Each structure stands twice: as C-alpha cells, then as structure tokens.
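Sample A.
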Amino acid sequence: MDTSDTSLGFSHLGLASPIAQAVNDLGYETPTPIQRQCIPHLLAGRDLLGQAQTGTGKTAAFALPLLSRIDPHQPGAQVLVLTPTRELALQVAEAFQGYAQHLAGFLVLPIYGGQGYGLQLSQLRRQPQVIVGTPGRVMDHLKRGTLKLDGLKTLVLDEADEMLNMGFAEDIDWIFEQTPPQRQVALFSATMPTAIRRVAQRRLNDPVEVHVVADSETVDTIEQHHCVVTRFHKLDVLTRILELETFDGMLIFVRTKHATVELADKLKAHGFAAEALNGDMNQEMRERTVERLKQGQLDILVATDVAARGLDVERLSHVVNYDIPTDPSAYVHRIGRTGRAGRTGRAILLVEPRERGLLRAIERTIRRTVPAMQPPSASQLSESRIDRFTLELRKTLTEQDLDFFYRLVSRLSSEHELDLMDIAAALAYLNQRDRPLDVKTDPPRPPAAERSTRENSQRGERRREGRPETRRETNRESPRRPARNSEGLTRYRIEVGHQHGATPRDIVGAIANESGLEGRYIGRIDIRQEYSLVDLPAEMPREIFNHLKRVFVRGQALRIALADHAADHSGEREWSPGEVRDRRPRAPNDATSGERPPRSDRPSFERQRQEPGFHQERRRKRTD
C-alpha cells in the first residue's frame, strides 16, 4: 500500500472493524502523515522508530493499529506504553479508551506515581489488556509482582527523549529486561539525540524509521509573535497583553517551579483567574487544577515544561512564553499545546534584550521568522478599558433593576445641589480607582532595540542611496560600552558612598542582580562621600523598588529613594556602567581625583618606561 497517498482515508489502512467504526464515530476523516506512515507497519508487527513533534497525531498513530491487534478475550497486559509524565499517561489512556469504545471486554489502566497503590492494585486484578504508565511506577509494580508482562505483545516508548532527560534511562533498561524477547517495540521521540539512537540500536529489531515534521516544525494554525521587553517590565507588559488579547484559555510557561507560584500570585493580584501547575503539587491537586481549566473555572495556568507534558485542553487558545526556553525544541513543544487538531492558536514569546540569540536559534529550528510585536501602548489599554466599562454600563442598564438608584441619584442632586454630570463623573472615578481607565505611560522599549532599529534603518537608506556606511556602522559599538541614553531614566539616591568603600561596579552589580535589570540600562552613577546618585528606568515597579531598599552594598543598606534634583550636581566624577572599573575609592579632596591631563600634556609611554621604579610599580599593580 502506498502510504504517501494523502487522498486515502482510515478505511484503507487495514484497521480492525471495531476500531475503524470508532474512528468514524469520532469524526476522523483523513489520517495525518505520521498516522498514514506508522499504522501499516505497526499492524504488520514491525518495530518502529518514529520522530514527530507534539500535535502531529502521534497517539492515534500507535494506538489504532495496536488496538486492532488486541485480543479482548485474553486477559493480562498485551500492550505497555511508557510515558514521561502522569498527565501524558492519562491522556494516552483516555485516547485508547475512546478508540476501543466498540471493543467488547477491553480494559486500559493508567498507573503513575502520586496515586494510591490500593486503587491501582484493585484495577490490576481485573487484568487490563493495555497498561499506560510512568517508568517508576511500572517498575514498582513489576518488582512487587502485581504486574506481569508474560503475554506482552508490544512495548511503546512515548516521548522517549523526555524520559531520558528526566533520568529514566536505567528504569527503562530494567523494564526492557522484563519483557518477552519477541515483543514488538515502537519508540517515538520529538528529537533524535545520540542516546535515543543507542536505545534503538540495542532494543529494536530491524526497525522502520519514520520522520514526520509539521510544516516548518510547527503547525500552521498557530500565529506566533515575539515582544522584546526588559525583565524589569515583563510583568507589566504581560498584564497589558492579557487585558487586550481575546483568549479562552491560556498557558504561560516559566523556567522554574518557584516562578509558577510567584507569577500566578501576581496575576491573581491583578484580577486574573490564574493558578500554578508544577511538579511539587500532588496528583490530586494537579488533576483538579487541570479540570478547573477545562470547565472554565480558571483561565490561565502558569506551568513548567515538565508539568505541562501531555496537557491537552481544548479551550487553550493562547500560549505565552514568559521565560524563553533555552532549548529551541522545547519552544515547539510548548506552543504545540494550542492549535491542535485543526484548532487555531496564538503563541506570544517575551524576549529580554540579552536573549536575542535564543530567539534566532528558535527561528532557525522552525525555519521561519517569529514576527515582532510592540508592547501594548497606554492609549490601547485605555481604549480597551473604556470599551469594557461601556459594555458593563449598557449591560447593567439593560439587565438590572435600578429604580432605587435612580431615586438615590435624584435625591443627591436635589438635596446637595449636585449636577447629574458631576455625580456620574464621581461614580465613574470611584468605579475605576483600582484600574484607571486613563492609562498615562507606555512601557519603555529597550534602548538597545531602539538603537538597533534606528541604525538598521539608517544603513538601509545609505545602501539604497549608494552612500558608504559610517565608521560606527561598520565597526559596531560593543554592547559592554553602549552610548548613554538618559531618556526614560529617573535619578535615585542610595545611602552608600565613598566612606563605605562603594565602587560603581558594586552598585551596578547589586542593582542588576536584585532587580533583574541589565547593567546597560542603568544610567549615570555619581558616588558621593556618604551617599550616591544613580539613574534608573522610570516607572519602577513598587515591589522591586521596595526590595532594593533592603539590598546591601559593602554592608550598607541601599535605602533607595527619589533624589532631590536640586542637589544632584556636585562636580564629582560620574560613571556610566560601560565605564565601571574596580577602582579604589578616593576622597573628594584627593589631589589625584581630578580629570586626567590632555594627552599632549602627559608623558608618552616610552618616557614613562624610562622613569625610575616604573617596572616595580607595574608589578605591584598587577599583584594588587
């Protein structure tokens, strides 16, 4: 049979009649490329090595043919599917159950850690034909003797690369040793690293190789965009996006378990229905949280890569990468949570300026450009809030009994001689105090992004006009020494200075590490005897500002506060981060603290070398 013929439906693949009937009932019409290529080989009993990304129909590619070979009258495990996570185990088990709805006497059982042994033991006594489980729990039952694999026909490793990444290699090897030597093996992996190749060479017998890649490594139904934003303003930009985007359900990815809780709490404080999903939650809590998302009681899940494995929720319309993944293939997995089974989806990637290299790596992997989007502006946010306010107003006028409030407003107007417009304006103000309708400021664009856009535009104009590039354009400025840009900066005072031994490097390091702000976006630093002045981006979030108050430099708390602009200029040396060097603090009246003489007034290097003690002084400085 020619598996490349895309016009053929499931009826031509040779599935058993009860399975073909279930496929028809589920509304499946045309097999996906991986289903078209895998099903005939698995029906024939061949070992198979398949490479496919999330969302390509991989589960049906092995479940349909293996169910067609199941003997429902033979008790005991005939198919064992290993998955890296509990969520994926549940998803695969549900798929098997759905495809086997017309298969009399069929039983499938998911087994995974976090669920009580009692329930699993009682279900194992019923002799299910298909076991879907995580390696650790499967191994536990095999050692206890509560799971037997004597009659096993097929072993499936689903998302094998992820299982190896999670440290299940030894468990999988041990499980292989417990299976009959003539069993069929199907190994599926999103990537094909050397470790997977080694497993295939050792464990698979003359396997058929299937490599299916969705168009440009991602499904076309996912609309992708990226937004360049500093870590300092990430939360602000995210909340603006959440306000302006029309979404049903959303999955937000972060790097760490701690970050899931932290970000979910901040989103809840902003009024969004959000919860964390991470590996520290017990299975009952995880299942309850996912079910709340499915039922519409939650709108947003903040998750790590591992926690979201196997998550397939139909109402997920958006995926946001709050933290960009360091592995480009993880990006494909993440956005694959939306836009599945022909549904449309939208993926938004927040990129810090220093992470542009990771963005380029992702674009190379998916073989397409991820278009840029600007952070939502203040005017867009204001219009959106006014529209919602107007909608709520009209809905209230239509649906609520307002007779009491009409009388109240009339009484206020007559008794207190208040104009109706004044009353309405005051009530509107009271309604919007926590979330102002008139948003004043835009999130600042990263200076590097503005400069890059401007310079690229200037270079393009010069090329079109046939003019040579300037020296600055051909010898691009080092990122360690950017041009100063005071736009969008505010001057702050910190209570650490020369007398505490503070250096510009100490101050930049402390602020950058504790606020997440890159050193290049910290402006001038003016170190005085008892305190210092430093220029930082305006609109500093309150939680970061309060945190910086308690940060210590040289044993001294910063106690940061807005500076008195009238006392900002003292004539002392000011430093920008590009000029920061670890210098010894100098007293204000130190004769050596003045500006260096012009080059013409300074002795040449050759003359300095001839002066007595020059080499000894050089050695001493190197030693210091």
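Sample B, a different protein:
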Amino acid sequence: MTTTLSAPEHAQPAPQASRKPSWVKPSVAGLLLGTGLLYLWDLAKTGWANDFYAMAAQAGTWSWKALFFGSLDPGNVVTVDKPPFSLWVMGLSGRIFGFSSWSLLVPNALAGVASVGLLYLAVRRLSGPGAGLLAGAGLALTPVAALMFRYDNPDAFLVLLLVAGAYCVVRALEHASTKWLLLAGVAIGFGFLDKMLQAFLVLPAFVLAYAVAAPTSLGRRIGQLFAAAGAVVVSAGWWIVVVALWPAADRPYISGSTDNTVLELAFGYNGLGRIFGEGRGGGGGATFAPPSGMQAPRGGGFGGEAGLTRLFSAEFGGEASWLLPAAIIGLAAGLWFTRRAPRTDRTRAALLLWGGWLVVTALVFSYMSGIIHPYYTVALAPGTAATLGIAARELWRGRANFAARVVLAVLVAVTAVWSFVLLARTPEWQPWIRYALLVLSAVAVAGLLFGADRLRRLGPVVAVVGLCGALLGTTSFTLATAAAAHSGGTPSSGPSAAASGRGFGARGGFGGGRTDAALVDLLKNTTTKWAAAQSGAMESAGLALASGRPVLAIGGFSGSDPAPTLERFRQYVADGDVRYYVAGGRGGFGGGRGTSGEIQTWVEQNFAPLTVGGTTVYDLTKSVD
C-alpha cells in the first residue's frame, strides 16, 4: 500500500517533466477561462464593495503620499487600519485607467485567477496535473473565494501572495534551491504588508515541509530557512522602517495603533488582539463594540463561539467548509500511506506543505477570541483544495488496493453529506441540488466499493460522477455568490446573504450605505482641500466616493483614532481647508468619545446647523459669532 500511493523519489523526474497527456492543456485553459469569467462577469454591480478601502484607493489616485501610506484622504490625516499593499495595486490601477468600480475591483479578480493558476502549478509540480486541476477547481469554486476575489478587501492579494510563497517553496524543494526559498520569504513579507500577521499562519507549514523533505543536509536546510526568515524580515520591514523614520508630524496617523506606530498595530489590534480577544475598533484605546442595535456574538467579533466547530457553524460553514472534512480525512490517510516513504518523498512533502497550511490556519481561526469575520476563511481555501486534490489523486492511483478505494469512497460520501447539511440551511433555495448530489455521490461510492472504477470504460465515468457529486454543492453556492451584489464591511457568501443582510453590514451600512443626493451635490461644488469632515470612515467614505471630492474621516475607520486633534482641526478650519462638517457620522466603535467627540462639540458650539436633504450640515465658513 505504501509503495502504491507514494510519489516518486526526488531523484526521479518530476511529474511535470514527463510528457503531458493531451487533455492537460485544454483543461488548464478551461479552468483559467472559467475562473476569469466567474470572477469578472458583471463585476460592476458590486459598486465600490467596501467603501472604506475604496475611499483609500481613491485617495491614492489623488496623492502619491496617500498611496504610499494607505491614507483615507489625500490630505494624509489618518490611514486605514491595515498595511497598504492591496491599496497600492488598486490605487495604481485607478491612476492608469481612471478611478471607477472596474479599476478598483478588476485587480482583485485577476488576483483570484492568478491564485488559481499558481495553485495548479504548485500542486502539479509534486503531484501531477490531475491533482493540480482538482486543487485549482477547488479554490475557484469555494464560495468565499468568489466573494473576496470580487471585492476590494485585502484578502484577495493576501491569498495570491501566500499561494505564490507556497509555489516558491515547492520549487525550492525540488533541488534544495536557496533562491526559491528566499523568494518564498519575500512573498510572505509582502503578505505582511497586505494583512500583517495573518500572512505568517502558513510559515509553520512552509518550514516543516522544507525541513523534512528538502534533498540536502540538515545543516544546509537549517541555514537556508534562517536566510528565508531574513528575506521575510527585509521584505516586510522596509516599509515599517520608512514609516518609523518619517517625521510623525509629516505623515498620517497609523489608524488602529495606540502609539502611531506600525509595529503596535501589527502586534496589537491586528495581531495578538485578534487572537486573544483584545481587539479594538481603532486607535486611542477604544473598546470594540458594534454600532447601536447590533450585538457581537460571544467568543469573537461576528464569528460565533470559539472552538473546533466554529468553521462548521452557521456563520462560517457556507463560506469555505464544503471540502474541509474530506481534506482532513485525506490528509490523515495520505500521511499514513506514506509513513514508510523516504524522507524526500514528494507526496508526503506536498501533504506536509498544504496540509500544514490547512491545519494551522483552521486551528487559529477556530480558537481566535478577538475580532474575526467569516470571510477570513478565504485564506483557508488554498490549503483545503490542494490537500484534497493531492489525496484524491493518490488514492485514485492506488485504487487497486481496496483500502484506497474505501478511503476515496469515504471522501466522496463525507463531502456529499456535509454539502447536504450546508444546503439544508437555506431550505427554500434550489432544494433539488442537495438531493441530486446525494444520488450522484451514492452512485460513485457504490462504483468505488464494488470495483467498477477498475473497469476500463467505467473508470472515467465513476470519476466524473464522483466529482460532480462532490463539487455540486460548493459550485452552486459559488455561482449564487457571484450572481449577487455585495457591499459593506462584512459580506457573506451564498444565495441568501445579499437578500437577508446576513452579517454586519452585508448590504448597506458599515461602509455600504447610500448617501443623500442633495448632500453629494453640495460637496461637488466645493473647492477646498476637503469638501467636508465627518466622524469615522464608515459614512464619510460614501460621501467621498459619491461626490468625487476629498472628505476628512475624523478618527479614521471607527472615529476613535486621535487624528486630527481638536487643535489641528481648528487650524484646518481657520485656513479654509474644510468647507462643511457633516453630522450623523458614526463616531463608530469609539462611541463619539475622544477626539471625534471634542471636534463635534466644538463645531456644534461655534457653527449654525442647516439641513441638506435629510442630513444636518455645518458650514465651517460661517461662524455663529
């Protein structure tokens, strides 16, 4: 059994080196074209997606300095509460093609196509084109992938950088290449500049796979890994150093930090705070709390209870768990079947790499007690898809052994049953799908158990029927996700998400609300540095995007960052830099306290209100004195 399911020794030609079957090229082309169609079709219906990041990308099209720092406005008062890598790409796209929904979102969709293609290439190199195609299709047809690759959150580019890092590790494994291992470190470093410590979740898997399976001495493996760690530090640290050395008075405030530094943001609000439950909605020490009328679930921000079942819960299950049970079983089976293989065995190396990615990421997401959103699971999808693709391919190759056929049948059956459960959570939507996949899977399971797969003409039929049964559920949810328009800070996938507003601001609010037309017209006619100021970015982002004029988001994302100070804001007003103050902004999770509250009080005391449409506005050129 071990020799049947083991991949070739490292000294033998890699799978890609042999002559490819005639079906490979058209299959890969179909995979990439289908993925592109899925992620790009009618993309403009999503609008600005998450207004918060769209506002920063817009600012980057007006100011190179804002682009570099990831500022929310071209005046560089405060940044987004994430590093700016994704904003660099979207901002440059807006500068080249003109700022629009398309120029904002197309780079994310292309990042999705590239992720699928790189995943195919990475899996193919160690496990052959069949496994690569299964892995690529598994990623492309994960609902949360269709959601986030059609969105402007940083997650799309995070996934691309992580998959690129894994591809480089695979290349390094082939010949113990220092160059490729260093490139893997660079990819992870830039992943840090996209979403900070979340990029490091794959590092244990990368280190384990290389330390175990690289075809060189132990001492050289250790030295190469230390060199790769240096590459991570340099590629992530150069931007941090520049920000630290830049005079604080001449750059924006680092939103989400308590001391205006990137490192505190990385290890505080966006790092350990996310894991251990000390998250804040912004800087200044504000405590995280949702807006009025919303209640965050216990055990994590909008992610339900922490624990092993979280990823299968109502909040998370439909996002990325469709293939997860089968991937876990396939990982265990693959490691068991290769337990006696040589140290450099390719199949085991691939399982350690992708299975390690799956296990570490799943455990961290399961037990995070800070802020976590279900769409984070897009980072789990490549590890899940690759692990299952590799395991399924190896079991299919070894199906002459009855044990391999049994495990393969279990994978199909478990996927079908879990897909049925997930589909049953939206019982009114296309109920025939869940029964169809049960029938298809039952036929495939029977064929595997009774050996029909070993007959020359029936083998491909069993394989196709099994794949259809296993992928029908996740495919249907993915297509429904891509067919719906999504907006706001916490979008959800699936057929009912947009209609029901599932999630915090799935449609409208939290960066997805509508702006008053009369107010937008008022701002369009301004010529000042900022057309208006408003507390928090959740509402002011919509004003900036709708009017095409800069808006100062007081206090950053949540209104709780100490930027600008009251004294600085008063100077802006005295210099004629801000025309209007718009009331009704969400002082956000800061509750209107701190700097945002001080500025609001000062405005109310010194300027007379007027009503524009349904909004209270203060003309800052007309003092009540």
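Observation for Sample B: The beta strands are 530-535, 551-554, 578-582, 607-612, 615-623.
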